[in-house]
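Quick one before lunch.
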Amino acid sequence: MQYTSTRNNSLSVSSSEAIAAGISSEGGLFVPAEIPHVTPEFIEALVPMTYIERARAVLSLWLTDYTKEELDAYTEGAYGSGFSSDAVAPTVSVGGNLNILELWHGPTCAFKDMALQLLPYLLTGAAKRVSGGRETVILVATSGDTGKAALEGFKDVEGTRILVFYPEDGVSPMQKLQMTTQAGKNVGVCAIYGNFDDAQTGVKRIFTDKLVKEKLSAHNMAFSSANSINWGRLVPQIVYYFSAYADMIKLGKIKNGEKLNFTVPTGNFGNILAAYYAREMGLPVNKLICASNANNVLTEFLTTGHYNRNRPFFTTVSPSMDILISSNLERLLWHLSGCDSDKINELYDSLAKTGEFTVNGEILEKLGALFAAGSCDDRGTKETISRVFKEHNYLCDTHTAVGVSVYADYVSATGDSTPTVIASTASPYKFSKAVLEAVTNGKEPCGDEFSMVDELEKLTGTCAPEQLKNLKNATVRFDKVVKKEDMENAVYSLLGIE
Ligand SMILES: *Cc1c(COP(=O)(O)O)cnc(C)c1O
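Model of the pyridoxal-5'-phosphate complex:
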């Protein structure tokens, strides 16, 4: 199976090459030139399987230049231990019509672990084949969860270094502590003055800068990306949509062949794009419901066809979705435009120059058939956490609550009774302050992060993940903050190659 670039259709690379490079040299994203298809028998066979077995079945369809032995070892390494649930990503029915796919049982308590526990294996495997022994430098821009998950995935992985940039005031206190206390010999963390889009734009600029590339090359290093622009981030995420479907059959909620909706709290459009690929592969999916917070650029786009990032940026209680440039949308638009890279270049030139673009009627129609979209502000988010806890005794985090709220609006507006699975993307204990406020009906929480964790445990009878509680006594190793223009220098300094 070959991959090409959203901005250069004449390119053809293997999955290893796409994963090793992260982003195509002209700035496009790697996309599959064709999409593998599954049969109902393939799906039926997943039902009795473990998560690892399901992962092997799905991944082998996409990563055709990896051997079976490689994929067997990688999936075992990624999902064999390190997840606090035997099911890895369980689908739980919490009551009413709420079915929740819990994607946060990994080491960093957010859904990013689902991909980032596997990516280091995929990348080092790829690097062996394509980059001839050079050290791989993973550069990450994070809105909070990717950074930590990437640090955990790559720490002390031989042949790799990992550098993470995050917005100084754009992550939760728990997220910040998780990163600034990171252990490992090959890790670096740096804050920037700016928001996530500034960090992401800076990282993309560094990736495509020839001078930086030459300098790294002189030190026998090459960049790659652990952001969801890397195909190796997306492909592990396709697995859990198949897994959730199989679990819904197991739970007796659907029969094989019946359609499901997926509701996905969305920021960079990576998680929901994986659901799109699952659907294109033949998983019976009705609607993909895209849930945004107050940064509702995607809600507007999916309903009008007009993408406009010229709008106020809101810092919300669901910070991992505080994004106005949803990178992975480019991949979807490439597919929906009939693989037309000229069209993508035109749209993204416009986005770079004017901050907006509008797609044609044909694409808008396809978007409408595939997606529903909605948004939920902070107040609605907290009300939803409170309501779900009261009604179902289920505590969800702020991002998941955005999904639950948008799904409820969708059902009211459409009457659609298709069984639905909502992706739950983080442990509530990563966002204790907002969650505590929600379950105490708006009382301003007092005390530090860890006393809030204690109080939330007491009030709800749930348990905080050990790895979050242990941060209380961890030492801060990284406290540098730089201007966004100084990110290049920060990279040199973190790598020790000034
Ligand atoms: C990253 C993240 C999201 C958004 O996922 P995308 O793939 O960027 O759309 C949602 N919730 C949480 C908790 C996250 O960490």
